[in-house]
């Protein structure tokens, strides 16, 4: 009796020792494979607890049941502790999961490149107080040419370059044309605002009689116009440099070169430093510079035509192609610009 | 206009140590733009762009004159060396060898000289080489002299076979409509009238002046005596003539820009020297020169404060004078006031003080001016600016899978609609009218993509142009789109969501209209005003269209705030069996209006003729109990049964 109960007692305490030892080790485990090794060490075919189970058969019959219950409980406790310990690991895969599986995408659409360009351009100018406007695309000769100091007989007013509407001319405003440039908005904006300051950014469709890989008969321009007291060339330079830094990138700058336009005096061609060679000169640019477009100080006749006193106010203006400016920024090399106004979904859904 | 300038030739007139690369770079910064330099046969060729107002620099000498003013500003010594002239011929108003009558309005300056006993032969190599360098093909010494002077000085000239001018008599006059002239290139032109022509003693036309000489008076291999001819012409007449005859020559391109008459003296004397040198001819000592109104220096007045204000920097009077003098302007200061005297070759370009500013600024150097944003107050925003609203629509539609397109505003006659504006000079029939609807353009896009079998949605926001009498057209900014291969409810759901996100309060009313299949169209109205439409086109595409301005007027920019209900809603699904041809839209409207405690209705399922609606019952001040819900439900079901014959499935 004594002998048997001793055997039972020693097995019971052995079970408790093994269990506690297992739990301590499990609690210390840091990785899933450590836990797996512990499971095998205790509950595997030759595991420490498994071996103890084998010893139950040597116990007195009346003790077998209790020892069995005890060992089962130890086994369950060990298994539960392994599971809960596993759940505390951050990185361990608790179950097989493939995080790399491709997602199911929502049906996402596409904004047109020109829309994206217009948004970026107008946002850039908005930050320095420019007011976005738009004016008629079908316009009087007066606003498109005459008021801009472009005299009759000037090539721009030829039927070769500008589209005209087949309708009799107005006695005051002349013929009806499709506006060939956003400059048509200059005098309209002066008439709207009446009293400067004016900081206009006019973005609109323009039309010219041209059609080849780099020209479409419909295109977009953006026109800046600033009129106020004491506006000089240095403010034009400041504005252009601001645009270059904020639209093209902070290391980009502009330069002015002499040019000629009827509605500005002096007139300038604006270049921007090449983004590829950083101004050193490469095959994409001319000695480190790329042509952006025209600009100049507003001609006093134009101010007068807009009802603004040129002795009191001065201003500057610039007008460039939206498509071209955006291509220069994005570096998109579109062999054929006509694709933009084409209908091919394969093209349109790229952007 | 683009001209080619040879570096070797340029250095005849420009003494400088500047390298070709520096000449190109600095000219571009302060004067004519050199687009490219090309090294060729020991020479450098500058491809140079001359703006239309600067015909005075459209020559090698003209570019030298600019360079001599510009290079010193970059610390490079440069000096202009005018052409050396040997001829001592006198300019006189009458000569024995030619009897001339000139219309001075057409020809401000008329000069000519007879050169006898010329020998026609090829030019010497150094002349040929220079002509080739600037893109000219050497022909013989006579032709080459004309081309040489044109490139060197920018003065077009002409040569007649003197012995072919009947009675040595010339009348320079405006042509009469229908007169004919055969030019050197053997083309017969019937003149529109008002063209500058020269008639000889036998009353035949021997020159289409400013454009091209006549064949009947041309130099040929037997020519002995040459009348060398240097003129300026009225630019407007020249331009009109070449436009109407579509015959633009190099000479015409220069004459149309209003050439300096003073240049004639240099041109004819340079020609005389070259004739002696290249042909061995003997010039008469008297040069015929009919020049009734010689150039009197134009004065333009400005002031130091004006200059400084426009440039934004301060300058000394001495520097200002130096810059202007280097360009040939004379300057005289009276206190702060500056009077400038404009050289003849700049008189067509310099009119006002701003023109003087340009000259000072570019020689000072645009690159040296500081760069600063303007201060001063910021203008008021544009009232009712539409841009944010339009962009919101574009963002929403593209967010739900729409692809934005930009189609051409001009369409064919078929696509244009009645009364659409017609272009006078379209590039083709398919783009000859201003569109009055976006629909045809968008249908075109879909048809061009007929290979696409998956559902797609395209949309555009663009103007249509509605004609108005004696006014510019009404330009309406229209939103339109097409769903292809798409289920009706899915397409309509996108439009409903759009209108919800724009915070509009609209009604959908079934109304037929042309272009749409019968019963398959709804008008979208807000307070009885039509703002758009949606439906299935005869072409079987789902189309929608809104006037963005009207839509904007009905749209709240911020969603209205509704206080959160304090008491929860009771929600249940009702499944109704509807008689065939019942409009579900009407059912929903009826249910919504059946009781004010009905907060919301949604169609959640359709199975055959059974429609399941989810109904939210809600009261602002209490939680509805089952009896109250039942009362409402019975009210709805009874009403539906009575009005639509609908029965409850449960």
Secondary-structure blueprint of this entry?
The complex is a heterodimer of chains A (351) and B (650).
Chain A: H1 2-28, H2 32-43, H3 48-55, H4 61-88, H5 113-126, E1 131-133, E2 138-140, H6 141-144, E3 176-178, H7 185-193, E4 198-207, E5 218-228, H8 233-248, E6 254-261, E7 264-273, E8 289-298, H9 300-305, E9 314-321, H10 322-330, H11 345-348
Parallel strand pairs in A: 1-4
Antiparallel strand pairs in A: 2-3, 4-5, 5-9, 6-7, 7-8, 8-9
Chain B: E1 2-6, H1 7-10, E2 14-16, H2 20-30, E3 33-40, E4 43-49, H3 60-70, E5 78-80, E6 90-92, E7 99-102, E8 109-116, H4 125-133, H5 141-153, E9 157-161, E10 169-174, E11 180-182, E12 188-190, E13 196-200, E14 205-208, E15 212-213, E16 226-232, H6 235-245, H7 250-255, H8 263-279, E17 282-283, E18 286-290, E19 298-303, H9 304-311, H10 317-326, E20 330-334, E21 337-342, H11 353-364, H12 387-399, E22 402-404, E23 410-411, H13 413-416, E24 433-434, H14 439-448, E25 456-468, E26 471-484, H15 488-501, E27 507-510, E28 516-526, E29 529-537, E30 542-547, H16 548-553, E31 570-577, H17 584-594, E32 598-607, E33 610-617, H18 626-644, E34 647-648
Parallel strand pairs in B: 6-18, 7-10, 22-25
Antiparallel strand pairs in B: 1-4, 2-5, 3-4, 8-16, 8-17, 8-18, 9-16, 10-13, 11-12, 13-14, 14-15, 19-21, 20-21, 23-24, 25-26, 26-30, 27-28, 28-29, 29-30, 31-33, 31-34, 32-33
Helix pairs in contact in B: 4-5, 5-8, 17-18
């Amino acid at each position: 009796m004594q002998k048997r109960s001793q055997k039972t007692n020693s097995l019971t305490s052995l079970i408790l020792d093994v269990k506690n030892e297992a739990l301590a080790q499990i609690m210390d485990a840091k990785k899933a494979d450590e836990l797996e090794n512990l499971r095998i060490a205790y509950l595997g075919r030759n595991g420490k607890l498994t071996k103890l189970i084998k010893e139950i058969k040597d116990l007195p019959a009346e003790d077998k049941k209790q020892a069995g219950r005890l060992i089962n409980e130890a086994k369950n406790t060990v298994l539960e502790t392994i599971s809960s310990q596993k759940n505390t690991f951050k990185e361990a895969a608790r179950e097989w999961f493939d995080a790399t599986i491709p997602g199911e995408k929502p049906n996402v659409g596409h904004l047109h490149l020109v829309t994206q360009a217009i948004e970026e351009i107008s946002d850039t100018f908005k930050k320095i107080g420019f007011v976005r406007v738009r004016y008629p695309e079908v316009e009087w000769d007066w606003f498109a040419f005459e008021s801009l100091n472009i005299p009759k007989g000037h090539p721009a007013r030829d039927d070769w370059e500008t589209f005209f509407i087949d309708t009799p001319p107005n006695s005051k405003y002349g013929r009806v044309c499709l506006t060939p440039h956003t400059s048509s908005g200059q005098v309209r904006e002066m008439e709207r605002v009446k009293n400067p300051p004016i900081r206009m950014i006019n973005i609109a469709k323009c039309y010219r009689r041209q059609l080849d890989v780099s020209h479409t008969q419909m295109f977009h321009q953006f026109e800046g116009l600033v009129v106020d007291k004491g506006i000089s060339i240095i403010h034009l330079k400041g504005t252009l440099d601001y645009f270059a830094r904020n639209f093209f990138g902070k290391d980009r700058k502009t330069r002015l070169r002499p040019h000629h336009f009827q509605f500005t005096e002096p007139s300038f061609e604006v270049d921007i430093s090449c983004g590829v060679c950083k101004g050193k000169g490469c095959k994409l640019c001319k000695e480190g510079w790329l042509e952006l477009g025209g600009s100049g100080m507003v001609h006093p006749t134009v101010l007068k035509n807009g009802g603004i006193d040129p002795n009191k106010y001065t201003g500057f203006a610039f007008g460039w192609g939206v498509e071209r400016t955006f291509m220069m920024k994005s570096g998109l090399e579109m062999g054929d610009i006509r694709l933009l106004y084409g209908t091919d979904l394969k093209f349109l859904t790229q952007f | 206009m683009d001209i080619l300038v040879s570096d070797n030739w340029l250095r005849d007139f420009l003494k400088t140590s500047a390298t070709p690369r520096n000449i190109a770079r600095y000219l571009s910064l302060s004067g004519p733009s050199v687009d490219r330099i090309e090294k060729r046969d020991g020479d450098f060729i500058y491809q140079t762009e001359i703006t239309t107002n600067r015909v005075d620099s459209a020559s090698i000498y003209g570019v030298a004159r600019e360079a001599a003013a510009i290079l010193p500003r970059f610390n490079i010594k440069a000096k202009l060396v005018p052409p050396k002239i040997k001829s001592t011929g006198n300019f006189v108003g009458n000569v024995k060898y030619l009897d001339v009558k000139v219309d001075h309005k057409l020809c401000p300056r008329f000069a000519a000289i007879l050169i006898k006993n010329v020998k026609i032969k090829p030019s010497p190599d150094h002349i040929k080489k220079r002509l080739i360098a600037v893109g000219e093909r050497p022909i013989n010494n006579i032709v080459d002299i004309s081309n040489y002077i044109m490139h060197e000085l920018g003065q077009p000239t002409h040569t007649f076979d003197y012995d072919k001018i009947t009675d040595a008599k010339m009348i320079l006059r405006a042509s009469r409509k229908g007169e004919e002239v055969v030019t050197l290139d053997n083309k017969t032109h019937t003149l529109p009238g008002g063209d500058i022509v020269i008639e000889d003693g036998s009353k035949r036309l021997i020159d289409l002046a400013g454009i091209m000489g006549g064949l009947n008076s041309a130099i040929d291999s037997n020519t002995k005596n040459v009348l060398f001819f240097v003129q300026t012409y009225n630019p407007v007449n020249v331009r009109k003539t070449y436009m109407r005859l579509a015959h633009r020559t190099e000479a015409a391109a220069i004459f149309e820009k209003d050439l300096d008459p003073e240049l004639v003296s240099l041109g004819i004397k340079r020609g005389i020297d070259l004739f002696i040198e290249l042909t061995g001819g003997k010039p008469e000592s008297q040069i015929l020169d009919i020049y009734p109104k010689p150039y009197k220096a134009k004065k333009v007045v400005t002031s130091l404060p004006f200059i400084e204000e426009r440039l934004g920097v301060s300058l000394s009077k001495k520097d200002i004078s130096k810059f202007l003098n280097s360009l040939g302007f004379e300057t005289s200061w009276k206190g702060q006031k500056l009077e400038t005297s404009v050289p003849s070759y700049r008189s067509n370009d310099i009119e006002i003080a701003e023109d003087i500013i340009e000259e000072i600024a570019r020689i000072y150097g645009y690159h040296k001016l500081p760069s600063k944003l303007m201060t001063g107050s910021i203008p008021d925003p544009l009232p009712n600016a539409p841009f944010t609203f339009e962009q919101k629509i574009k963002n929403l539609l593209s967010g739900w899978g729409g692809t934005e397109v930009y189609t051409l505003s001009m369409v064919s006659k078929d696509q244009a609609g009645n009364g659409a504006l017609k272009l006078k000079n379209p590039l083709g029939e398919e783009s000859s009218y201003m569109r009055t609807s976006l629909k045809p353009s968008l249908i075109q896009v879909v048809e061009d993509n007929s290979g696409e079998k998956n559902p797609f949605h395209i949309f555009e926001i663009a103007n249509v142009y509605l004609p108005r009498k004696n006014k510019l057209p009404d330009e309406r900014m229209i939103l339109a789109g097409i769903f292809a291969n798409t289920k009706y409810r899915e397409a309509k759901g996108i439009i409903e969501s759009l209108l919800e996100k724009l915070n509009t309060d609209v009604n959908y009313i079934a109304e037929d209209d042309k272009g749409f299949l019968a019963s398959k169209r709804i008008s979208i109205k807000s307070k009885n005003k039509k703002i758009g439409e949606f439906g299935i086109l005869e072409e079987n595409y789902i189309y929608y269209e809104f006037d963005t301005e009207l839509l904007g007027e009905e749209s709240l920019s911020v969603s209205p705030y509704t206080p959160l209900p304090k008491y929860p809603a009771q929600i249940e699904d009702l499944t109704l069996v509807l008689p065939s041809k019942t409009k579900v839209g009407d059912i929903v409207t009826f249910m919504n209006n059946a009781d004010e405690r009905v907060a919301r209705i949604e169609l959640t399922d359709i199975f055959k003729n059974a429609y399941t609606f989810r109904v939210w019952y809600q009261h602002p001040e209490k939680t509805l109990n089952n009896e109250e819900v039942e009362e409402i439900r019975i009210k709805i079901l009874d009403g539906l049964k009575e009005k639509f014959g609908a029965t409850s499935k449960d």
